[in-house]
Amino acid sequence: MQAHTKKAVDVIQSIVDVISDIDQIMVAIASSVEEQTSVTNEISSNISMTADNARQLNTKIKSNIEAVRQVASTIDATASESAVIQKDVRNTTRGVEEVLNYVSLANESVKDSASRIEEIQTRADELAALAEDLKKAIHIFRV
Fold first, then answer.
1. What is the pLDDT of residues 30-68, one digit of tens each?
2. 3, 100, 114, 143: least buried by Cβ within 10 Å?
3. Distance between CA atoms of 89 and 80, rounded to whole angstroms?
4. How far is residue 4's CA from residue 11's CA, in Å, rounded to a whole number?
């Protein structure tokens, strides 16, 4: 009977040892689960921050896209106005060229008139000299 009791005590001790091993394994598992939970929470927090940053970036990108659209619209408007200005400059250039042609013609006319006035002045001086000669010739016949 003592042999059976000793065998029963040995079996019970083996069961206690197994339970102790299981308890240590459970503590290790619990510690691992706790560490994994902490890491998971940190990963979740990082994912949340990344999502917030992505939303902010998306908002900024949309804002930048709108700014680029406005710049493109301004460039289009400026290009259209530039075309109108170019047309106005061409028209003004044609007008200035026409005025220059008229001024050139007027200048030629003035030069021609000046030349004729000189000729008239020369003829008037000749006529005045003839009139003086005639006056002297008539003065002889005066009584």
1. 888 898 989 999 999 999 999 999 999 999 999 999 999
2. 143
3. 14
4. 10
Longest CA–CA separation in the chain, Å: 205
pLDDT digit string, tens, across residues 112-142: 898 999 999 999 899 989 888 888 888 877 6
- Residue type for position 64: N
